[in-house]
Amino acid sequence: MSDSSSTVYSVSSDSDLSTDEDTEENGVSRDYKSVNISVKEGALEKEEVDVIVNSTSDKLKLRHGRGSRALLEAAGNGLQTECDQKYPTGITKGDVAVTGPGNLRCKSACHGCLKKYGSNDAEKIHMEFISKCLKELDSQKLSSIAFPGLTTGFHKFPKNVASINACRAIAQYIDDNPNTSLKEVRFVIHPEDKETFKAFCDAVQTWDLSPNTEIERKVLCRFLINQITVLIKVDKIEEEEVGFKT
């Protein structure tokens, strides 16, 4: 759940956002202002990009998690050594640990640990982590960044929530930082994870980046019960657009 001061982005059309003709089978790609946002299937550790983002444990033990382990194997053990030396006590959930690339085809790596869905501030921390990674990119005057499907595995976020929140965070960062050096964002999804790939394709294809703060102001909390997302909000029930009312 975003805090009340956050901008929310809702589905509609927007003149600033254009889509190319890629089909979902090949991924999707679209531009928001001066930034290209794309979704592709692939191995994150093989991407050639300025910054690679990695989700791991709060102790920065890079063998924890399939994606992080693959990244470490490609980068070499020096990546773990650098984490141990720079962050001997680990990091707080939501913070960013910055390392060199090791043998990866990037210039910098951002590592972080997030919270499980339904725990306190899990969505807020997810979005803020993305913003922190983009801020780190800007601090180094870099232009391209690759994210995995953050929170869709171990953290148990509904895939549509994870993908939409990622789009929100990126759009808000671009809006808040008009002089950003960011030019390209890639979501790189493991080829076996078809559901996450589809969710991110759908989010990037259909998510409009125009503000709708009124909606978010009314939402008090959101949580998961038996794979059903429940929202509690303050509003008039007669104005709700739902399939069934009591």
Automatic annotation (TrEMBL):
Stored Pfam families: Macro
Region described as Disordered: spans on this chain: 1-32
Record's subcellular location: Nucleus
GO cellular component, one term: nucleus
Gene Ontology MF term list: NAD+ poly-ADP-ribosyltransferase activity; NAD+-protein mono-ADP-ribosyltransferase activity; transcription corepressor activity; ubiquitin-like protein ligase binding
Ranges of Low complexity composition bias in the record: 1-16
GO biological process: negative regulation of gene expression; positive regulation of type II interferon-mediated signaling pathway; protein poly-ADP-ribosylation
Protein name from the UniProt record: Macro domain-containing protein
Organism: Magallana gigas
